[in-house]
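S1.2 Input.
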Amino acid sequence: MRKGKRLWAVLSVLIFAGGFVLFPGVVRAAEILKVGMIMPLSGPISIVGVGLTRAVELYFDKINEEGGLKLGGKTYQLKLIAEDDKNDPTVASTAAKKLVYKDGCKFVFGAITPPSAAAIYQVCAKAKALHLITWIDSPGAPGDVSHKKPYAVRLCVSSDAAWEMDYDYLKATWPEAKRLFIVVPNLGLPVERAKKLAQERGLEVVGVQTWDIGVSDFLPFYTKALAAKPDVIQAMCSAQAGYQLRAARQLGYQGVFISDAPTAPALILSLVGPEGSDKVLSNGMDLGSPTPSMQECMDRWKKKYKEPFFSDSIITWAEAEVFVQALKKAGSIQPEKVVAAFDSMTAPNSFQTAFGPGHMAGKNRFGANRVVVRPIPLSRLDQGKISFVGFKMPIVDQ
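S1.3 Output.
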């Protein structure tokens, strides 16, 4: 009798303490999958870095609440470890080393500038960890994907992918607007490509004005722009489009204004005011017309954080969606297998995002299908009112 009791006690310990020897698969403790993220969490653009980081964290919360990520017979809880690069590539490199060597991260999100992205990749490649590029303004920059970089995947659509659709919409909506002036940050963007696309659509590019990152006073630049008497001004790839529009309106410009960055039209409106927010075409999302996935992101933000929702966070929420779907397709947390899964997701509707269905592309342009292509929003501001035009798939093969 005593032996029977002892045997039952031993069995109980084995089952409930996690031994799983006698009945494998009946009780399975979740493992932790650590994922790194490097963003400017302090400094002048920390609002961007914090917002983008929080969105990934919120999506991981969702996965964990739903029971975790099931891969290859195991269940993983996702843990995000965020590091601050202070918008400095040297700091980004140090942060990446900490994440891959100390924390054991096989996957690292980041960053928002090409120099930091390039620094992160150097560390990830050496450690055979996968660098998940969160933003690249200038496609083909040293921090971007390449067929020579087997451990890099870009989860975002760069702003230049919207140029065709923006010019087409401009031509159809404001056919009288013919003279285009481009105001562009000094990031090595493919301005010549933009000129070619514009000219193919009957637009005359009457000037290009560059500005250096860190500029806060745009009046001198827009004084030069307005001297060319444009009908259309394009604030190319700029998170500061609202400030630029405000400068243009202060100088008396009343023409069409294009913001091809994902900056939300509501943010532009808040900076410029109703009177100046007219004839504005934006590739930012009108959060008054969210998809169900976007709404979930906003609801989770409201529940977890006190600060107002940061509209660009939708971008990295969608990136986290794609990342998790690639992990599921790979059935593994091995970076090489996950890269192979990304490479195979080239058919339309290969994955779903908050913006709609997408796929991987980039072979023609970068030599590898390592770039996410998904719908880009078109929104408008007319006399201070925001309207959502809809989603458009990029024409260009990323």
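S1.4 Remarks. Residues 46-65 form the longest helix (20 residues).
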